[in-house]
Amino acid sequence: MSERSLGGLQTAPVGFGAMVLSPGMYGRTDDDRGVAALHAALDAGATMIDTADGYGADGHNEALVGRAGAGGRDEVVIATKFGFRIPEGAEAHSFPVGYSFGELAVNAEPKYVRGYAEQSLRNLGTDVIDLYYPHFPDPQVPFEDTVGAVADLVAAGLVRHLGLSNVTAGQLRAAHAVHPVAAVQTQWSMWQPVDPELLAAARELGVGLVAWSPLGGGFLTGTVQQLGEDDFRRHIPRFDGANLQTNNDRYAPLRGIAADLGLTPGQLALAWLLHQDEHVVPIPGSRTPAHIAENTAAAGVTLDAAVLHRIDEALALFAPAGRGALLAEADG
Ligand SMILES: NC(=O)c1ccc[n+]([C@@H]2O[C@H](COP(=O)([O-])OP(=O)(O)OC[C@H]3O[C@@H](n4cnc5c(N)ncnc54)[C@H](OP(=O)(O)O)[C@@H]3O)[C@@H](O)[C@H]2O)c1
């Protein structure tokens, strides 16, 4: 599969999500393993590396991306997000979410945005961020104001493209009227449908889609049987208690389709996403080079209409137990 365009930003069809490379996310890791994973992603052909100032403590995840040298490579798209690392003296604003902790603390006031970007540039060891997102719309700040602050960074040459993350269709339209949006990052996978209004608005405006947790946080690979005590996914009701076993049982028909096609379940999940829209780029995360190669190879999988129909029929019957959506208003 050739490159994809996200509102004019060119990237390989399958990107890489670096969040899992920071401690406290989805199992044990360390920095050497993280840098090796980033190199494996770039070697496998991923060109978009997705990180955030809020992954890990003190910009840990961005610094790993910097240590891997990703920011110094012309073909690499560095995408990062802001709003979680609240400066001393700034207010924490509550953003309600559907995971069991109930809310996140954010601050996307325009006066802090340049400082966020400058810190991210230092962490990443680069002089320009290719794609810069407010991680969440700040409920205490008119969204257009936050977006305007990113537009100022584009004008100043610190940022190349504006992205939005975890927004509604209305927020996308409002932002796009302030400054062209290259991509919207949204939770989208076989077990978490995209918001149809958001998809329609993105298509109408020529905005690309970056699918986060495209493997359903690992579930869709069929390999998640139990979670460690400190695994972040314990906060997601779908992974909690008996739900995980129930969901693995209910997911069996889709694992069966993958086996019939000679694919892994994760490859089927990524290939299915790539066939939903020509402007979608999934960003699977992994600490494991073999998994990374497997995921990136999904870009070369073609699913014909009959197979897509068979998958859609199986998905229509697949009703996961427990909420899976991060956004409080989205269906679980
Ligand atoms: N904007 C937002 O609010 C937001 C929220 C969440 C995530 N994101 C972004 O989306 C990216 C991806 O999301 P995610 O990490 O939540 O979930 P994901 O990519 O759906 O799943 C990652 C998990 O799947 C496992 N995995 C990956 N490939 C595998 C394979 N081939 N076989 C078996 N297991 C495999 C990984 O374990 P191993 O390490 O063992 O391979 C990891 O535990 C993040 O890195 C982040 O950049 C954004």
Automatic annotation (TrEMBL):
Residue runs in coiled coils: none
Record-linked InterPro entries: Aldo-Keto_reductase (IPR050791), NAD(P)_OxRdtase_dom_sf (IPR036812), NADP_OxRdtase_dom (IPR023210)
Key words, A-Z: Oxidoreductase
Domain annotation NADP-dependent oxidoreductase: ranges: 14-315
Gene3D superfamilies, per database record: NADP-dependent oxidoreductase domain
Domain of life: Bacteria
Alphabetical list of PANTHER family matching this protein: AFLATOXIN B1 ALDEHYDE REDUCTASE, ALDO-KETO REDUCTASE YAKC [NADP(+)]
Protein name: Aldo/keto reductase
